[in-house]
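Async update (no meeting this week)

Hi team, since we skipped the sync, here's where things stand on the single-chain job. The sequence we agreed to prioritize is pasted below, unchanged from the tracker. I ran it this morning and attached the output directly underneath so nobody has to dig for it. Comments welcome in thread, and please keep replies under the output.
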Amino acid sequence: MKKDLWVNNFSVHRSGYQLGAPVLYGIINTQKILFGAKKPMALKNYFMVFEGPDMVKAIHKKKEVRKLIETTIKEIFQNPKKLDRIHKETYKLNAQYFSHAKSCSKVDLKNIGDKELGRIYLKLIEWQERAHQHALATTWYLDSDGEDFSKLLIEKTKEFCQASGTKINFADAFSILTTSTRKTLATLEETESLEILRIILKDKKAKNIFINLRDYRSIPSGLSENISMAIKKHFKKWKWLAFNYMGPAYEIDFFLHMWSDLAKQKFDVAEEIKKKNDWAGKIRDQKTKIIKGLGIGKKWRGIYNIAADVVNLKGYRKEVCFHGFYVMDAMLREMAKRLNLARSQMYLLTFQEIGDIFLKGKKVDVNKINKRNGFTILDYKKGKIRVFTGNKAKKYYSSVNIEKVIIDKNIKELLGTCACSGHAKGTVKIINEVREMNKMKKGNVMVSHTTFPNLVPAMKMASAIITEDGGMTCHAAIVARELGRPCITGIKIATKVLKDGDLVEIDADNGIVKIIKK
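Output:
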């Protein structure tokens, strides 16, 4: 009998076990929330492959992933009110998670005992698992294997456009109808940042200081107390935004450099702030016009609204998670000091192991931790996270039939899914990490495995964005819509086929990338 086929569903660079272990634990819960505790789970067999802190593969049974996706789409159409309720619960849980993490950041960690530190850490992990996994079926799995939901809505939008007899472009309509009017945290930061720029430019002395600024390591002297305090407050409030899962957070130089660059440009700050503030109203007006023009009825309006929430929630819960990890990192640093470990070693412990160390006094096995810098497997059985290293990990991995991806590096055309409509032509730049952003020039086509908030400065320079992550729910899709950039997602081999310097032509409406010159 042929072995079941297994597939890699996602990977996360520098995530550590602090992300992986709770996700393994939470996959069951997200299915119970969606399908009901008494119904059989669609997704039962899965494991993660780590190399040090990098989650290089999240392996699932192919037929189980397909079942989860198909069942979730069925639930969306048969029980839209239920999906709407789950999404509202997810927004609320993430707001509570954000608030809880903020309160944790005020605790003087150095002056509490081991057990109290352990309890605070585990409580934060509990909030992370509850908030991040509550709608995982829709905010991740739904479009993770072939972008089923995105493609379904694109085809339906084409039908509406053809039947209406109007000149409304289907890709434009799809992008607008699946865009939420809720602002992301990154957008709120950007608006507040522009307000600070405005007060800088209104003050002649401050404007001159920022135009001539060369040292970005600290707030420059000579600024008014009002401006200095606004900068300090903004930095403290938003420095976590770039943290991702293991950091680093923004330093003050990021903000000072940005304001300095903008101060040198002919930049209408008031107009940019107005655009930010008017954006939600503009999207609402465009939606109303499209719905009327295409004659979209109540049922399909509800489906598009659920899709818009899926898109927004994917970004929002990720931003909230980054804040939580930023706060958690302070705990892990304090724990590392007490255990005489490196910070990096703490990220190779599961939350259950950390709980056993700090609440039950279990001894730390440094040799066991160090072995996890190599090929390691994490899985979930009977309420426990299991960790396999060395030959045991290799034997585990070789026992399953994993789908092989064959890549034709001479391919001339790549096909993905429209995330934001439009056309562009430009030179490819592969950007996966902050340190790679300096090679990005205005008008380049940005190609990434996936994108995060700390890559937004590069995204702003791009004429178009291409990602391997799939569907309208990925971070790139959310930002591309806010920026008005053509965006194609779900090209699984993008960073393997495309290289820096390649000239490409983008038809985001149809999800096509043509390679003009290698």
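Quick observations from my side:
Residues 298-339 form the longest helix (42 residues).
The chain has three domains: 5-134+337-402, 185-277, 413-517.
Reply here if anything looks off.
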